[in-house]
Each structure stands twice: as structure tokens, then as C-alpha cells.
Design brief:
2 domains, about 130 residues, mainly alpha
């Protein structure tokens, strides 16, 4: 209805007001959807906690920061999946982790070798080994 009025109106001020109204309605609708989605997630979490208590486990409560981080990671995953870049991202992460492990392993081996070298150096000065 507002779209039709926007097309029919020739007054610039009235067009601006109608555009603002349309934008406000769209924002309100989007906010309502987000609110319903959040309430649904909260309800699911509550049900999971109740089920855990019934099973004899302790209920787990996330901090707000942990919750935000988890939501951010899930959103990032969904975005990568939609754009088709998930496999590329996972390959990069795997490569990065392999390099980190290799550096850590070589650093530890270097420490062991240097300790052995220092041990023989000290022993060599005092005794003949």
C-alpha cells in the first residue's frame, strides 16, 4: 500500500516520509524475526539443560562472552558454507595447524639436542666420556 502511494506521490517531502515509513516497517519486521529466533534458541537451550538434569548430569551455563563467541563461530561457518569457501578455509586451517605443530616439534627437539650437547660438554670438562 505504501509502495503504491510512493509511486503515485509527486511531492518530494511526502515521498521522503513514505520511504522512512517503509524502512521503519522493514526494520521492525527484521527485529521481530531476530527476537523470535533468539527466543527459540533460548528455549532449546533450556530444554537441553532440563534433559541433562533428568539424565543426572549437572546443568551447563555459558557466560555471555562464550555464548557470543559460539554464535559468531556458527555464523561464520554458515556464511562460509553458503559461499562455498568452507573447504578452502578448512584446508588453510589444517595447513596452519600442521606448521605450528612442526615448529613446536622442532623446537622441542632442538632443546633436547642442546641439553645433550651441554651435558657432554660439562661431562667432558670434568671426566673423559
Amino acid at each position: 500500500m505504501l509502495q503504491k502511494e510512493l509511486m503515485d506521490t509527486t511531492d518530494a517531502e511526502r515521498k521522503r516520509q513514505i520511504k522512512i515509513l517503509i524502512q521503519r516497517m522493514d526494520n521492525k519486521e527484521r527485529e521481530e524475526k531476530e527476537k523470535q529466533l533468539k527466543e527459540l534458541k533460548d528455549k532449546e537451550e533450556k530444554e537441553m539443560r532440563k534433559q541433562a538434569v533428568k539424565d543426572g548430569k549437572k546443568p551447563f551455563y555459558c557466560k555471555k562472552s562464550e555464548k557470543r563467541l559460539l554464535e559468531l563461530l556458527v555464523d561464520n561457518y554458515e556464511q562460509l558454507k553458503k559461499s562455498g569457501k568452507l573447504n578452502k578455509h578448512l584446508k588453510k586451517r589444517m595447513k596452519k595447524n600442521i606448521i605450528k605443530k612442526e615448529k613446536k616439534r622442532t623446537k622441542e627437539e632442538g632443546l633436547v639436542v642442546s641439553q645433550i650437547f651441554n651435558h657432554y660438554k660439562v661431562v667432558g670438562n670434568t671426566t673423559t666420556a
